[in-house]
Design a protein that fits this description.
140 residues, mainly alpha, de novo design (two linked rop proteins), 5 helices
């Protein structure tokens, strides 16, 4: 390299660019999760019991519904809790259970990214869970 050539420095990512990249990543994860659930619903419906079919249909409605009052991370967290109980059903075949875990993995990425950028909301939600727990148990 000669003295007259300038070295290029890597461009710093601005907050707006970081938010756009995070939003794109979240949408990709959501699209993968919805695609997997639709695959289960259409191709494996004969292997899933009626209650599980209903839950998968409700999950698809929850994830596809873009309400301004409910953020994507909250919808993902709600879907994860339903998927957790669904994946523990003994009547579900192992390959379908694996597909449900894959959906959970995609949705957890959305939830973690939100809490990493918004640590105060993670603290607030933890406090809310503790308050609810104390109401039901009488502890704290």
């Amino acid at each position: 390299m000669t003295r007259t050539e300038k070295t290029t420095t890597p461009k710093r990512i601005t907050k707006e660019e970081k938010k756009l990249l995070q939003k794109k990543t979240n949408q990709e994860s959501l699209t993968l999760a919805i695609g997997t659930l639709e695959n289960i619903q259409t191709n494996y419906s004969y292997k899933v019991n009626r209650n599980s079919k209903r839950l998968i249909h409700e999950l698809l409605d929850l994830l596809k519904h873009e309400d301004q009052n409910i953020s994507l991370s909250i919808r993902a967290a709600n879907a994860i809790s339903v998927l957790d109980s669904l994946s523990q059903d003994r009547r579900i075949e192992s390959h379908i259970r694996t597909m449900l875990w894959q959906v959970v993995s995609n949705l957890e990425g959305i939830r973690e990214q939100y809490f990493m950028t918004n640590p105060k909301s993670h603290f607030d939600s933890t406090c809310m869970v503790l308050q609810l727990f104390s109401c039901f148990t009488g502890i704290f």
